[in-house]
Design the sequence.
């Protein structure tokens, strides 16, 4: 479904694009952090606790505030549309389940269970965003008496403020660990993004790198030479990550990214 063709105003169409882009950013970063948590749980359960703390901090900082902002803007307006009322009720129930899963992650427990809770959070969140992109946003953008652009004006939690996620190089913020040991490939977690949708790919890498603490590494597997991605990584965290090519195609590019 193309929200651009359904939008009643060009500004509304632009607002839809901005929300969808922010959704992709959130979903990608969540996927990257969950991948690193799963890797840590498989290799070193003690390290998984640090990655779990980083994931919870991301949810508290970005994911849950986004959900709260939706309820007071998108959902409040959609409830005035008869065809959307039951849908909004279901979306609100999913928000409660998302919150419950984040709360479950706050509790220290077996690494395998923590990884399962994180994966459940990721699946539910991705399905939730699909409903927002494909159902809620088109309804609002196509309603002639609702200005989606005005509704979302200044809402950084919904549109993304362009702010950078704080670098974990300082050891603060999200914390996190990749559960690897130095540059020994046997101990370095691998993030293969070849099957990750293009819209989510860069955000997935950023999320995974957010869980790599100083002195540790991550092996990135990409379908092409990721030069634009490497430039973005350097722009976001100047001088923080060293890059070493281990394979240069033709089917896969493998790069060791080490947090200095």
Sequence:
């Amino acid at each position: 479904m193309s929200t651009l063709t359904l939008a009643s105003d060009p500004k509304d169409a632009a607002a839809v694009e901005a929300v969808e882009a922010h959704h992709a950013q959130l979903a990608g970063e969540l996927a990257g952090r969950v991948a690193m948590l799963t890797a840590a749980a498989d290799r070193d359960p003690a390290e998984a606790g640090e990655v779990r703390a980083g994931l919870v901090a991301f949810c508290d900082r970005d994911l849950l505030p986004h959900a709260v902002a939706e309820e007071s803007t998108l959902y409040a307006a959609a409830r005035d549309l008869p065809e959307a009322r039951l849908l909004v009720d279901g979306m609100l129930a999913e928000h409660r389940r998302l919150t419950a899963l984040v709360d479950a992650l706050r509790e220290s427990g077996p690494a395998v269970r923590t990884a399962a809770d994180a994966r459940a959070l990721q699946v539910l969140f991705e399905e939730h965003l699909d409903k927002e992109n494909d159902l809620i946003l088109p309804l609002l953008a196509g309603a002639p008496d609702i200005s989606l652009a005005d509704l979302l004006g200044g809402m950084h939690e919904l549109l993304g403020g362009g702010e950078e996620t704080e670098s974990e190089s300082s050891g603060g913020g999200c914390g996190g660990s990749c559960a690897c040991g130095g540059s020994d490939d046997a101990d370095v977690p691998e993030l293969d993004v070849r099957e990750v949708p293009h819209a989510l790919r860069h955000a997935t890498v950023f999320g995974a790198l957010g869980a790599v603490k100083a002195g540790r590494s991550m092996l990135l597997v990409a379908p092409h030479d990721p030069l634009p991605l490497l430039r973005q990584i350097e722009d976001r965290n100047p001088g923080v990550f060293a890059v070493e090519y281990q394979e240069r195609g033709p089917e896969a590019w493998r790069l060791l990214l080490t947090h200095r």
Remarks:
- The two ends are 44 Å apart (CA to CA).
- The chain has two domains: 3-159, 176-259.
- The beta strands are 190-192, 217-222, 241-248, 253-259.
- DSSP finds nine helices and four strands in the chain.
